[in-house]
Amino acid sequence: MTSSQAEAAVREAAMRWLDGRPKQEVDYAWVRQFEYHGVNIPLMDLQRGIRKPASMTAALAIRTTFTPPNQLPPYNDTIGDDGLQRYKYRGDDPQHPENVALRRAYEQRLPLIWFVGVAPGSYEPIYPVWIVGDDPSRLEFALALDEGQRFVSPGAAMDSDSRRYVERLTKQRLHQRVFRSKVLLAYDGRCAICKIRHVELLDAAHIIADGKPHGDAVVPNGLCLCKIHHAAFDNSILGIRPDRTLHVRQDILEEIDGWMLKGGIQGVHNTELAVVPSARAARPSKERLEERYAEFLAAG
Hints:
Elements: H1 3-19, H2 28-31, E1 35-36, E2 39-40, E3 50-51, E4 61-64, E5 85-88, H3 97-107, E6 112-119, E7 122-135, E8 140-144, H4 160-186, E9 202-206, E10 222-226, H5 227-234, E11 238-240, E12 246-248, H6 250-254, H7 259-265, H8 286-299
Parallel strand pairs: 4-6
Antiparallel strand pairs: 1-2, 3-4, 5-8, 6-7, 7-8, 9-10, 11-12
């Protein structure tokens, strides 16, 4: 077995181990427990953003620290014209050992794990991630977050439809996943309207839609909603006033149907959101609620 094959085997084992994590987010204490053939190989380095175990020749993982709820994360503005995500070098020296370790992962086509901070000391693991381009002039690597993106040539000309498709994959694999984790953590894993706790039934809803002005993937532009209330919110069946009280559309209030409509939708009219984040900076933005509520009234 070549050294590249051996390192690929460690990565495969690490990713399968992460598949079995007890919850979506992980911390350093948990990821440092990974073992391969009886040898402990911590998957994260708290002192460095790039993790290369001493026994390996190429980087195993990268890390991005937590960004406060009302601030844009550092990766948010680093999608290239090709739709691929960028990851900045360590410092400004292309030959820094950590940059060399990432370059080796690129040259050997080895997958990486990306730990993205979603709360202080808590990370969402994104994997597998591949380096598909190296640009010393801009001090950055191009990343593929999806198997299909591995066939995109960084910086190559492409039509607008292809570019939008690649960018959509980037946002689905990174931005939206991290946004969901941050919003669910801020709301303690409960629907803001009905307080249901089952994570498989919860979504991170945008107040202002992604792609619009003020539609950033930040927690104050998010609401933790169950799938029923998310769909009702997105389809202007119910709106949320700037004071966080709920407004159910008049024709829905007059409709006669089963217990779900009566209790789950009609029954919340003129009530307040049942759950809001304890941290003031994570609470829904009043300005965004006002903008979205105006859209709701116009649609009704």
